[in-house]
Specification:
May be part of a spliceosome complex. The protein has 236 residues and is mostly helical. It has eight helices and no strands. 73% of the residues lie in helices and 0% in strands. The longest helix is centred in the N-terminal third of the chain and has 55 residues.
């Protein structure tokens, strides 16, 4: 009788053990998921903080950072050369390849090399330097004016010269030719796009048309299906 009761108890004990093991497995998986969720939340928070930092940085921060890193490397290289008793400039020249040296030499020979856009002040200065180099002073006319006006040719804060100078016809012609050249050059870069009569009119003025083109360029792929549904009349 006792052996029969033990046989009946064993299946129940085995079932309870299996249930307990299953419960432990579920708890283990739940703890793993909980840890993964916390880790994902932490990483997501870190990414949000980093993105917020990036958005608050200046527009040219990456270029400045690269420049600072390069300057630090140069300083470290100079210290290493000084510790070894070597001349940094000589070591630097030995590390430069022939192709880089030729390219830098060609760039040096340029009077006004285009280093790329950094800001509007630098672009304006570059244009000013380019325009002033095109000016060819008339030394003969300058000598005549110097003889005619003497010290009055060099005005001071007390000089009253308003309305006394009349430009020559040649000077006016040069200025007009230069302005026409600048206008022609600008038109090459900002030419008006041809108007398409068959295109849909979805704007109220030219400014709104430009805005719609920009919006279509950035968001058109996301709104294509909505537009098609609106045209078919099947939009919900």
């Amino acid at each position: 009788g006792s052996s029969g009761s033990e046989d009946e108890a064993r299946p129940g004990t085995a079932a309870a053990a299996a249930a307990e093991a299953k419960r432990e497995e579920r708890l283990r998986k739940f703890r793993e998921l909980h840890m993964k969720r916390n880790e994902a939340r932490k990483l997501n928070h870190q990414e949000v903080v980093e993105e917020d930092k990036r958005l608050k940085l200046p527009a040219n921060w990456e270029a400045k950072k690269a420049r600072l890193e390069w300057e630090l490397k140069v300083e470290e290289k100079k210290k290493e050369c000084a510790a070894r008793g070597e001349d940094y400039e000589r070591v630097k020249l030995l590390e430069i390849s022939a192709e880089d040296a030729e390219r830098w030499e060609r760039k040096k020979k340029r009077k006004n090399p285009d280093l790329g856009f950094s800001d509007y002040a630098a672009a304006q200065l570059r244009q000013y330097q380019r325009l002033t180099r095109q000016i060819k002073p008339d030394l003969e006319q300058y000598e005549k004016l110097k003889e005619q006006y003497g010290e009055a040719l060099y005005p001071t804060s007390d000089s009253l010269l308003h309305g006394t100078h009349v430009p020559s016809k040649e000077g006016v012609d040069r200025m007009v030719a230069d302005l026409e050249k600048q206008i022609e050059k600008r038109e090459k870069y900002s030419r008006r796009r041809p108007y398409n009569d068959d295109a849909d009119i979805d704007y109220i003025n030219e400014r709104n048309a430009k805005f719609n083109k920009k919006a279509e360029r950035f968001y058109g792929k996301y709104t294509a299906e909505i537009k098609q549904n609106l045209e078919r009349g099947t939009a919900v």
